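Usage

Read records sequentially. Each one opens with the input sequence:
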Amino acid sequence: MDETKDKSLETEEMHEEHETSKKERRNKHKEQVDALENEIKDLKDKMLRNAAELENFKKRMHQERIQDRKYASKSLINDILNPLDQLDRIVNMTTDNDLLKNFLIGFKMINDQLFNVLQADGMKEIEAKGKPFDPNVHHAIEKIEDRNQANGIVLEVIQKGYTYKEQLLRPAMVKVNEWSEENGKDK
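and closes with the structure output:
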């Protein structure tokens, strides 16, 4: 009977070992499944982020193309501003010579047409004379003290300034009225 008992104990121990190894294998498989599920979750997250980044990149590139088309003429206009300023000065000069006056009238018409084309494309002259000084669109090159005029007002435009659509092409070069009650007093 002892033999039977021993065999039954051995069988029981083997059964317990078998159950324990089954549980260990199950736990090991569960851990592997959990690890794979976490990896899948991480990969899905990365995929969604990459898809969102790609979509944002496409939108940004589309906006840049729109901006490039919108401001395509900006560089050209900026390059021809100085020659146009020279032409404007020439056609507005005074003369007593009738032949020269006739030529200047013709050149003035051409000059006006050029400025009309540029204005139709989005170029605008910055209004400065008699306006308050604005450092965003005006560049002060000289201060004048005239107590008959308001303080901080642009008195004279040395060089016209221009904007192209919403962007500054060139600031207006101006002389600004600046005076103070303390000027000339020892304070």
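Summary fields computed downstream for this record:
- DSSP finds three helices and six strands in the chain.
- The chain has a mean pLDDT of 87.
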